[in-house]
Amino acid sequence: MTDLDDPVEHDETPSLAPAKRRRPDRGLLIASLVIAAGLTLIVWGFFSAITGDEGVNRPAEIESISPVENAVQVLQQEGIAVDLEFGYEAVLIVDGIELETTNIGELEAEPGQLLAFPPTAIFDPGNSIISFTPSDDAQITEFVQGRHQARVLYWRVDEGRDNARSYNWFFEVV
Questions:
Q1: Is 5 a domain residue?
Q2: Looking at residue 15, what is its pLDDT?
Q3: Do the domain assignments include residue 114?
Q4: What is the pLDDT of residue 133?
Q5: Would you say residue 31 lies in a domain?
Q6: What is the pLDDT of residue 106?
Q7: 98-139 pLDDT, tens per residue?
Q8: How many domains would you assign to the chain?
Q9: Domain extent for 68
């Protein structure tokens, strides 16, 4: 005997009563909305964040500076460096004092001896970087605590200093 032969009667009239809808759990709905809002804010934060040098309006000829603009935790013996595009020369002016600059290409040493750097700002023409680190014999022996202004005066090598441009920034020494 098969199931088809089973003489069980089936009710062929569908139930007319509507299916009962379950009401959503209010706590679960609120938690879901809070999580969705949080995820939306996180994604928005990633896409709208300004990082690195994006928020700095620096001339294109200046690739990087150290310490960065408005740095607030600079040490007293920390150096200043400006990386320029190739083909530029520069001098540094710190707190109104133009630092004497030595071109590293003009320094000479005996064979087998290390170069002795003078206590001045050092310009490396191969990399177009000018840097200065305070020392006992330098024009600036240390950066005193407080706010300092740095200025780089830069020009194309083929145009000369008469066509120089400048860029100023500040940093805070602790």
A1: no
A2: 62
A3: yes
A4: 93
A5: no
A6: 80
A7: 999 999 888 777 788 787 788 899 999 999 999 999 999 999
A8: 1
A9: 62-173
pLDDT of residue 19: 73
- Cα distance between residue 99 and residue 119, in whole Å: 10
List, edge to edge, every strand of the sheet that includes 62-66. Answer: 62-66, 80-84, 129-132, 121-124, 101-103
Determine, yes or no, domain membership for 16: no
The CATH number covering residue 100 comes to 2.60.40.3780
Calpha distance 94→102 (Å, rounded): 16
Record the tokens describing residue 147, joined without a space.
């706010």
pLDDT score at 10: 58
| Cβ-count burial 112-133 (b if 16+ within 10 Å, e if not) | eeeeeeebbbbbebeebbbbbe
Query: Mind giving me the DSSP string for the chain?
Result: --GGG-------SPP-SPPPPPPPPHHHHHHHHHHHHHHHHHHHHHHH---TTTT----TTEEEEESPTTEEEE-TT--EEEEEPTTEEEEEEETTEEPPEEEGGG----TTPPP---SSEEEETTTTEEEE---TTSS---PPSEEEEEEEEEEETTT-GGG-EEEEEEEEE-
Ranges in the chain, pLDDT < 50: none
